[in-house]
Amino acid sequence: MRAPASNLSVNADRLWDTIFETARFGGTPRGGVRRLALSEEDRQVRDWFRAACEQAGLTVTVDTLGNMFAVRPGKDMSRLPFGIGSHLDTQPTGGKFDGVLGTLAALEVVRTLNDAGIETEAPLCIVNWTNEEGSRFAPAMMGSAGYVADLPVADILARTDAEGVSVGAALDAIGYRGPAEVGAQKLAGFLELHIEQGPILEAEGRPIGVVEHGQGIIWYDGRITGFESHAGSTPMRLRKDALAALSEIVLAIEALALAHAPNAVGTVGEAVIARPSRNVIPGEIAFSAEFRTPDAGILDALDAGLQAKVQEIAARRPVEIRLDTIWRKAPTHFDPAVAGAVAQAADKLGLKHRPMVSGAGHDSFHMATVMPAAMIFVPCKDGVSHNELEDATKADCAAGANVLLHAVLALAGDGGNGFGQ
Amino acid sequence: MRAPASNLSVNADRLWDTIFETARFGGTPRGGVRRLALSEEDRQVRDWFRAACEQAGLTVTVDTLGNMFAVRPGKDMSRLPFGIGSHLDTQPTGGKFDGVLGTLAALEVVRTLNDAGIETEAPLCIVNWTNEEGSRFAPAMMGSAGYVADLPVADILARTDAEGVSVGAALDAIGYRGPAEVGAQKLAGFLELHIEQGPILEAEGRPIGVVEHGQGIIWYDGRITGFESHAGSTPMRLRKDALAALSEIVLAIEALALAHAPNAVGTVGEAVIARPSRNVIPGEIAFSAEFRTPDAGILDALDAGLQAKVQEIAARRPVEIRLDTIWRKAPTHFDPAVAGAVAQAADKLGLKHRPMVSGAGHDSFHMATVMPAAMIFVPCKDGVSHNELEDATKADCAAGANVLLHAVLALAGDGGNGFGQ
């Protein structure tokens, strides 16, 4: 017995239950999850995930970086598996959905196919990437970076956490330094479901975002050096006020991003006055700043605009401003065919959708550098993520999983059942 | 033998030596002084000071708050003593001159009068005020506040430091809870020599500032509440950026003060982002702000201007801004006769001077509320104070002490020697 095309749908309750079942591993009193990469809690959820995959008939392999690949055979085993998944690690005070939804929705897709007795043309491969969050070990998206050879495996294994424990030692400690060579599990493409981690879909009442681009990013570290002096006895004209200079930079970054809205954002996230005191003019401030945009030309323009503004401020105010570019990442352009399959699946299911740009980084950014890839976003409450209050509705999670299901059927071939048309 | 009027001058080397001699008590490796009020180091300098005063023939009494009064008899003991002095406590990483110069210059004035055999008409009284700095026990200018009954003595004695030690217990611990009633030592007036703690005199090449006014002050505590969200995935138009709002406030305070320059200053000294992160839009910031001006009308205008600007920002940006006025102090107007004696003394000595406004608070602010008072400023290097690098020249210190000497002769009566004309 096979479910008719119009009815093929994931089990929303089952998906929801697995999200809450895994949220026990590292669950916090406030309803969040603390499941740092390669921690004991990570081991627990990995063991659970491996058992669930094997129970669903998948063959699980683990590579040297702990990336987990669970393969479901297809009719045509000469084809590469199509990859779906995300990550199961969390921020230190993270939520239940970031990463988890994409990984467990992939499992739910397989379970649904199993229930419906559907065999895809190409195999499928559920992936759980190691250390997407980057909270315990830097950088973020570590497992997928190794997979696409953006970083050497030996380099990654040698990275250490705040206690000096290396990635390699942490993998050994939880038994997840696998035998498979990193990158050996080839994939035909990759599709990742994720909560938006932003407010747009919720604000517009659309359950599905078709992620077509990933923002390019520039990260800056800045330092403004003026001179600390007494707030009461230093006339305005003799001041070297680092905070006033920073204030101009903050507003300049905001104005530059607004000038390119909606295709750019700019933020000063950190600003620390050295030796702050109520009656002392701030003499030194360290700050971080960033721009993000999906357009490489705009990224250049934002950078040039900020550099010019900083020079102008430093020429006008008696302070030194140092601005170092510490990271620059070109925009990601996802595969039109994979993104198109997502949009078509949403259309078929009658789910309102819109094209989107991913502001946050994801493992799929790495995938997109070596294979056709895209992402599906679903709304999260108030746009909140990386927070114990992170939340999403059961209906939206199911909608995302159904779009994943039908896009995968189209991309991997539905085995002649007509679901993928 | 008496020195002729034109030659009467302090011993610059002796004054300088006493400054360095007392800098041993709490001296730091970097050349500064850490001598918190009522600490063991404070006891050491007090013992030294008492001994030096007694050796100079003065009668030392200590009141309940540890304020020290060293009286030198005058010809007319029916007149109240004229007060000169300052304080001997320092900031945690303070310098050798703040407070110390005024106290030891007063001692040097007495020593000079002794050497010259001059007896003033009115008695003189050197004062060492307890806890001017306010670093260990709040508030600052504590001893003089008690003296003028700005705060009840019992209230002051009950104030505690960070370790829970009360002022009363600390006074007992170093043996400086004296028998004299606070305020019992009446004074005819008060004159305090102090380093400027600002850059004006040095910039203008003038050794003497005649302090005619003390700035009125408003202190604010502020809190801006926006919403933390992901710097990459939150569009500009949906942001609730607390730092951008603060930046507007910082620049508004600067602009308001500049609009009333040179008679006003405005500063944001502290700004702390809650939970700062490079890729999170700042959702909450606590900050402090202040205005100072010698003009009560300008103080009102600055306050009204800021309140209006804050309302305008909060109406335009999706953030809440709370601004609490935590302290408001009216401007101090020093006594024209005392300040005039300072200017005349500088003229007589051929020292360039200018009228000044004290931006920092001093014990003399309290004195001015109950008696004729004024202050003398001398330059300090780069305007730096409350810092181990605090510095002043021997020549400027001597110039200030000489002006103090000749102003005191005029104010207390030189006993017919013609010095005070």
Could you name the key traits of this structure?
Alpha-Beta Plaits, 12 helices, 2 domains, Aminopeptidase, 15 strands, about 425 residues, alpha/beta, four-stranded antiparallel β-sheet, nine-stranded mixed β-sheet, homodimer, disordered N terminus
Overview of the molecule:
2 copies of one chain form a homodimer. Chain A is built from 12 helices and 15 strands. Chain A has 421 residues and is an alpha/beta fold. Chain A has 2 domains: 291 residues, Zn peptidases (Aminopeptidase); 114 residues, 2-Layer Sandwich (Alpha-Beta Plaits), CATH 3.30.70. In chain A, strands 1, 2, 3, 4, 5, 6, 13, 14 and 15 form a 9-stranded mixed sheet that branches. Chain A has a 4-stranded antiparallel sheet with strand order 9-11-7-12, covered by helices on one side. In chain A, strand 1 and strand 2 form a beta hairpin. In chain A, helix 1 packs across helix 12 and helix 3 packs across helix 12. The longest helix of chain A is centred in the last third of the chain and has 21 residues. Chain A is elongated and about 80 Å long. The two termini of chain A are 20 Å apart. The relative contact order of chain A is 0.18. The N terminus of chain A is likely disordered.
